[in-house]
Structure formats: structure tokens, C-alpha cells
From TrEMBL:
One of its GO terms (molecular function) is oxidoreductase activity, acting on the CH-CH group of donors, NAD or NADP as acceptor. Belongs to the UDP-glucose/GDP-mannose dehydrogenase family. This is UDP-N-acetyl-D-mannosamine dehydrogenase. The keyword Cell inner membrane does not apply. Residues 306-401 form the UDP-glucose/GDP-mannose dehydrogenase C-terminal domain. GO terms for biological process: polysaccharide biosynthetic process. InterPro entries: 6-PGluconate_DH-like_C_sf (IPR008927), NAD(P)-bd_dom_sf (IPR036291), UDP-Glc/GDP-Man (IPR017476), UDP-Glc/GDP-Man_DH_C (IPR014027), UDP-Glc/GDP-Man_DH_C_sf (IPR036220), UDP-Glc/GDP-Man_DH_dimer (IPR014026), UDP-Glc/GDP-Man_DH_N (IPR001732), UDP_ManNAc/GlcNAc_DH (IPR028359). Gene3D superfamilies: NAD(P)-binding Rossmann-like Domain (3.40.50.720). Keywords: NAD, Oxidoreductase.
């Protein structure tokens, strides 16, 4: 009933808190002393509704302790980042480091679960060799499995509890022990498989979305050339019971969907052609948006552009890998004058204004890059009074084109 969680980020911290709440004695470890110190002061470095209260509660009850060094436990969960190197290969340093850290604490019958997203065969080819340095016989004295996280930030607790979970052990016993552990709080089904399959399940889910979004983006470009409305066409196609085309946009952001396909590509570069092509298509979208915007504004001398949205998707405060940020940087490099507005982003950002009116005041064009709900309700009449030139470009299909045209706007919607 002792659990040690390595990595106290978006996944590790809520996971540690949940296990502590469900009766385990949990010790959370982070290699960053600043993170540990702030958590001990009951300050959170990540935002998630409900997390802080729950963490304080389990800490006060002595169910959760936090430090920079592991402790002896029955089970270890590794939930550290797996960033991508500049050559698009996975950086497994944090995983290897976490595994090495726990070596002196491992005992007979310990269980090690990796939650971090990793390239296929990482458990078998990277993690197991490190853990075998403990001297314990893997699969007989030490049990190992992969159980990838698949939760959506913002809905973390709900998804942690209710989503189905995949558990892939290096053998049956490892899988069973892992399933028993998660059953403490998971209400979704727990599906048992082998470690490499579990690794691929996680990567395939996000790759499916990336490829599907690339297809939607390609349809959008075709629509612009052939003269039809891609949004209307996708909506109608999706009435078919076996079709679910995703949404076009300025590109794919976040730290998962834009990254995970590369983990497959790394291990199968000659075969993963569609996966590679989809990554290229989605990564090229910010350039496409910039070139279309330049064409749209070519008759205006030294235009001022009001950017709406920096976050990588709607209604969140996360700018990681955001296509909006890529578009802004490209425009800035080309010397455009920009005003940037995103009601969700609190951190400083060049040319950012705190209110919407200041962003659009005397601008020549509004450019919508994020689908925040708030942007659906912008009033074209009000905007037409503020702007110097009545133009708007919408890359997320959040505005009603006809309403804006009625107010005298020249409108360019991606894919129409
Ligand atoms: N996007 C589009 N068109 C779409 C859908 C998304 O352009 O039709 C863009 C979004 O604007 C955003 C990016 O793709 O820039 C990714 O957004 P997302 O909402 O699809 O996914 P993430 O990255 O927030 O979270 C995903 C989720 N995976 C799946 O839905 C299969 C989540 O469940 C995973 O836990 C997470 O990745 C992860 O950690 O891997």
C-alpha cells in the first residue's frame, strides 16, 4: 500500500493525489527542487480545477508526502516528460533518469509502471535493461508495465476516473498487478495487453487525429481552389454513419498530437509515410495562413493586424506548440505591425493588449487563430466602427461570414 510517483507535473501530481485519496500512502518525487518546495508550501505550478484543494487535503491527512528523493514502495509510477529533440526523435533522458533513481529502492515483488508517452518498444528495449541493473529478475521478482495517460487537461479528474485505461505488462503478472492498482479509482474499463501494444495504442490515438486533421486541412485548400465551402461539405459528409472528418485550422498545437506521430516515425521511417506527410501538412499550415493573409491584404500599405488568439486550442491558457504563436512570429519577422489579444493568456507576450477594443482599434484586419467561445460572439457592427479597414480572416470558422459581410466587411474564411 505504499506508492511512489516520479514526476509531479500535469499527470503525476493529480495521479499521486488520486491514489492518496483512495487510501494509499503516496510519496511524490520531482527532480526540480523548486517544484517540490512550492508544493510543500501548498502552491501549485500547474492549473487544474479542484487539484489544489484535494492535494492540501491528502497532505494534511499524511497520505501524501513530497520530496526530491524516492522512497521504498510497493509500486512506482513514472510520469515524467518525454520531449522531442530537434531532430524529432524522442528524448528519453527523464525516463531513464527516473528509472535509475529508483534502482536502490526496488525490492522483490515491486511494480514499476511507466505512464509517460514513449516510442514503441521503449519498455522492452530501454526501461527493462535499466531496471534489470537492480539485480532483480524481471518478470519474476520485479514487475513492469506501461499504462499511458490519455486525459485532457481541464477535465483531468473526470477523465482520470472515467476513461478506459490500457495496461500493457511485460508479462501477465505485471499486467494483473497494474490493473489491481488502478482499480482503486478508475471507473472505466481496464484493458490488458502487452507493453509494446500499449505504447502503440497511445500513439495511434493521437496519430489518428493528426492524420485526420491533415486530411481536413487538405480539403480546405482544395475547397479554396475549386470554390466550395469545406465546412459545409465536412458537416454534410459527417452525417454519414461511418465518417468523422476533423476540422481544418491554422495547424496542430499542444504537446501531444503534434509530437506523438514522430515517435512512430522514428521507429518506422520508411513505412510511416502517411504519418510523416500528415505532420508536414499540419506543420505547414501556419505558412499557408500567412501567405493567404498577405494576399488578402496586398492592397493595404503597412497594415495593422489584430490577432485574436494565442492558445493552441479554444478555451484554454496553453500556448505550447501553438500554431497561433507560429503565425504571429512569422508575421512579426516579415515586419507586420501586430496587436495581439487572448483573454486566456496571462503571461507576457509582445504586442499583447489586455482588452479587445485596444487590439482592433484602427487596425486593418482581424485575424482569428484560436477558437475561444468568446470570439464567436464578436459584434461586427461594433468592430466596423473601430477598425480602419473592414477586413477579417477567420482560420477556425468561428464567425458567421454573412453577418460580417452585411456590415461591409471583406471576409476570408479558411476553406471557403
Ligand atoms: N485540432 C484541429 N482540428 C480538429 C481537432 C483539433 O485543428 O479537428 C487542433 C487543435 O486546435 C489543437 C490540436 O489540434 O491545436 C490538438 O488539440 P486536441 O484537442 O485534438 O488534443 P490535445 O492535444 O489537447 O489532447 C490530445 C487528446 N487525444 C485525443 O483526443 C486522441 C487527449 O485525450 C490526450 O490525452 C492528449 O492528446 C495527450 O496527452 O496525448
Amino acid at each position: 500500500d505504499h506508492l511512489c510517483v516520479l514526476g509531479l507535473g500535469y499527470i503525476g501530481l493529480p495521479t499521486a493525489v488520486m491514489f492518496a485519496k483512495h487510501g494509499l500512502k503516496v510519496h511524490g518525487v520531482d527532480v526540480n527542487p523548486k517544484v517540490v518546495e512550492s508544493l510543500l508550501n501548498k502552491e501549485l505550478h500547474i492549473e487544474e480545477p479542484g487539484l489544489k484543494e484535494m492535494m492540501i487535503d491528502v497532505m494534511n491527512h499524511g497520505q501524501l508526502t513530497i520530496g526530491t528523493e524516492p522512497q521504498i514502495a510497493d509500486a512506482y509510477i513514472i510520469a515524467v516528460p518525454t520531449p522531442i529533440n530537434s531532430d524529432k526523435s524522442a528524448n528519453l533522458d527523464y525516463v531513464i533518469n527516473a528509472a535509475e533513481m529508483i534502482l536502490p529502492y526496488l525490492r522483490e515483488n515491486s511494480l514499476v509502471v511507466l505512464e509517460s508517452t514513449v516510442p514503441p518498444r521503449t519498455i522492452e528495449d530501454v526501461l527493462v535493461p535499466v531496471l534489470s541493473k537492480s539485480g532483480l529478475k524481471i518478470g519474476e521478482q520485479l514487475f513492469v508495465s506501461h499504462s499511458p495517460e490519455r486525459v485532457l487537461p481541464g477535465k483531468l479528474f473526470e477523465e482520470l476516473v472515467n476513461n478506459d485505461r490500457v495496461v500493457g505488462g511485460i508479462n501477465e503478472r505485471s499486467s494483473q498487478m497494474t490493473a489491481e492498482l488502478y482499480k482503486l479509482f478508475v471507473k472505466g474499463n481496464i484493458h490488458i495487453t502487452d507493453a509494446t501494444t500499449a505504447e502503440m495504442v497511445k500513439l495511434m490515438e493521437n496519430t489518428y487525429r493528426d492524420v485526420n486533421i491533415a486530411l481536413a486541412n487538405e480539403f480546405a485548400k482544395i475547397a479554396e481552389n475549386l470554390g466550395f465551402n469545406v465546412w459545409e461539405a465536412i458537416r454534410l459528409a459527417n452525417y454519414h454513419p461511418r465518417v468523422n472528418i476533423h476540422r481544418p485550422g491554422p495547424g496542430v498545437g499542444g504537446h501531444c498530437i503534434a509530437v506523438d506521430p514522430w515517435f512512430i516515425y522514428e521507429k518506422a521511417p520508411t513505412t510511416a509515410q502517411l504519418i510523416h506527410m500528415s505532420r508536414m501538412i499540419n506543420d505547414h499550415m501556419p505558412d499557408y495562413v500567412v501567405s493567404k493573409l498577405e494576399e488578402f491584404l496586398k492592397d493595404i500599405n503597412d497594415p495593422v493586424i489584430a490577432i485574436l488568439g494565442l492558445a493552441f486550442k479554444g478555451n484554454i491558457d496553453d500556448m505550447r506548440e501553438s500554431p497561433a504563436v507560429h503565425v504571429v512570429n512569422k508575421l512579426r519577422k516579415k515586419g507586420y505591425r501586430l496587436r495581439v489579444y487572448d483573454p486566456y493568456i496571462n503571461q507576457p507576450f509582445d504586442d499583447k493588449t489586455v482588452d479587445f477594443d485596444a487590439a482592433i482599434d484602427s487596425a486593418d484586419c482581424i485575424l482569428i487563430l484560436t477558437d475561444h467561445d468568446q470570439f464567436k460572439h464578436i459584434d461586427p457592427k461594433h468592430s466596423s466602427k473601430k477598425l480602419r479597414t473592414a477586413r477579417i480572416m477567420d482560420t477556425r470558422n468561428v464567425i458567421n461570414k454573412t453577418l460580417w459581410e452585411l456590415e461591409g466587411f471583406k471576409v476570408y474564411s479558411l476553406g471557403m
